[in-house]
Amino acid sequence: xxxxxxxxxxxxxxxxxxxxxxxxxxxxxxxxVLRPPADPLLLVTTDTLVENIHFLASVDPESLGHKTLxxxxxxxxxxxxxxxxxxxALTLPEVNESWIEAFTRGFSALAERYRVQLIGGxxxxxxxxxxxxxxxxxxxxxxxxxxxxxxxDRIFLTGTIGDAGLALKYLKDRNERCSxxxxxxxxxxxxxxxxxxxxxxxxSACIDISDGFAADLGHVLDASNAGATVDWNLIxxxxxxxxxxxxxxxxxxxxxxxxxxxxxxxxPEAREEELIRRIATLPYPCQRIGTIDQRPGLRIENRxxxxxxxxxxxxxxx
Length: 318
Ligand code: ADP
Ligand code: MG
Description:
Layout: H1 5-13, E1 23-25, E2 33-34, E3 41-50, H2 61-78, E4 82-92, H3 97-113, E5 117-125, E6 129-138, E7 154-158, H4 163-173, H5 180-187, H6 193-199, E8 206-208, H7 213-224, E9 227-231, H8 239-248, H9 252-256, E10 263-267, H10 272-279, E11 286-293, E12 297-301
Parallel strand pairs: 4-5, 9-12
Antiparallel strand pairs: 1-2, 3-6, 4-6, 7-10, 7-11, 8-10, 9-11
The structure holds adenosine-5'-diphosphate (ADP) and magnesium ion (MG).
Adenosine-5'-diphosphate is lined by residues 9, 13, 27-30, 88, 90, 118, 120-123.
């Protein structure tokens, strides 16, 4: 017999993530009750993933559980916040216990890793859709806004870009070149929490790349009223993406495809050395790719042939 909603919650959702001292009541009452954090700022973000729009119906539920939490933690990472609590609203077409078991396994592993506690949520019946809200804490000196990039600031990028976009393209084309490692970049993005925290207090502006590098750097430029020049040769690409670009001439894919969940941030020249020292401890690459300038728009220098971009700006990427 299928478990009741309450039995499902008890079994699969009640003990996700650590039990934080600042959580007086988590799952089980009408509201979660939290003790306001010692850090002066509370940061809140929410993201919904809908089947066939944000993920393919074929994705395995464990990866989906990971990704729904990861995309929210990525927003906290981009602000330099420390993740603390999450809520989870699940709309499911049917109660399928093995699906829920796998989904919560993926969600839970990531929650443990970053010490985020699941403190509430909702379950409804309907087309598969998942909404997570994440709360984090921070301090005025360390929070990173999109609007604080200034001409002369250096632009940095964590990891590599285009991998998720290439995986999605290969999946859609049923191309057997899509390795497990490449597919993981699409289905199991790693929120760059450590990077966000390391650069807090040093970086000027930061954003996470969810809609594509050009579009998201464009948001920083818009918000900061600035432009940027990026050197194509400095943009970190993985071996499969580099090979794809070389063979197809399509350099739009790494620049414009979404779902990378890397961080792109800026740092004033005077703090660049200190920043480089700090990011050397990160377990993933993080490198300088360009400079913020006064002239509006995004310019890509040394771009490979096949990339048709005018110099007038990032709106051409959309
Ligand atoms: P109410 O009817 O008062 O909104 P529910 O019966 O929906 O409460 O939920 C009971 C408890 O279980 C609440 O604490 C709620 O936050 C929690 N809960 C329900 N669904 C989920 C879920 N998918 N994940 C985490 N907690 C959940
Ligand atoms: Mg209630």
